[in-house]
Amino acid sequence: MVLQDQVWSSASQPYLRPLPGRLGVSARGKSRRLQRVLTDFGCEHSFARAVKSLQEHYGFELGASAVRQTTLAHAHRAKEKLEKEYREPFRVLPAEGPAHVIAEVDGTLICTVAPGARTDKRPREWKEMRLVAAQAWDNSTAVYASTFGSVAETGRRWGHCAQRAGRGLNSQIHAVADGAEWIWLQCNEVFGAQGTFLCDFYHVSEYLAAAAPVCQSQQPDRWRRTQQKRLRRGAYQKVIDALARTWNPPKSRMKNRPCGRLIDISPIESTVWITREH
Asked: Helix, strand, coil: what percent of the chain each, to 5?
């Protein structure tokens, strides 16, 4: 298709182009659909790679700067919208909600590079990105949030995710994560009496593997497998007893928590959480 644009002039305007106005286009303008495509590609890969993806999927090219400008503009809008939502209280809940809400959280280190011009190699910095999620047990859609912020900020976003997932005053929050101390502390802070914490089986198995040489130096693998079998059938108290028989920490370090019981194996600096919810 070829369009010919004729330039007109009038007594008041020496340069008049009616065609762009009729078509709803402008120089360097982008339709909403194109902006969405550029933002999707720009978020997934580098801006240069996004240009190649645009050519591959849609058959035309734009400069990497156009992809960058569009992606950052929408990222800024999304940031403003989310920050406005996160300033609202997350403890304002409806009376009725789903009976159970599953909440998860984890963190990972991401290598970041400072923006701006440089004359030599850019300094790199590893930062922890924390991802939170919540989902009603009878809903296939999960709500996600992430932040480079503090542990407290992560907890607030976790609360907002649960709120958006439908959390009500009657809901039971089932939090699943590894045994990191900051996670169960935030679980208690954000969900209170509504929340129960469960350390996932994979991480419990890692902690048991670390504790095995101390608890059973002769056959550590056999001891670990025995404790794993006990956990699978819900006999968590036997696992706690097996750990306690081998190493007896001071009473000041044995604390009952709403989410479970902590047994600190100080010789190997590992923490094992066995929850009461199974």
From this structure: 45, 20, 35
